Amino acid sequence: MQLLHIDSAITGEQSVSRELTARTVAAWKAAHPGTTVQYLDLAVQAPSHLSAQSMGFRTGQAAATDVERQENALSEALVSQFLAADVVVIGAPLYNFSIPSQLKAWIDRLAQAGRTFKYTDKGPVGLAGGKTVIVASSRGGVYSTSEGGQAMEHQESYLKVVFGFFGITDVRFVRAEGVAMGPDAKAAALVNADRDVQAHTAAAANQPHATQAA
Ligand SMILES: Cc1cc2nc3c(=O)[nH]c(=O)nc-3n(C[C@H](O)[C@H](O)[C@H](O)COP(=O)(O)O)c2cc1C
Question: What is the value of pTM for the model shown?
Answer without folding.
Answer: 0.94
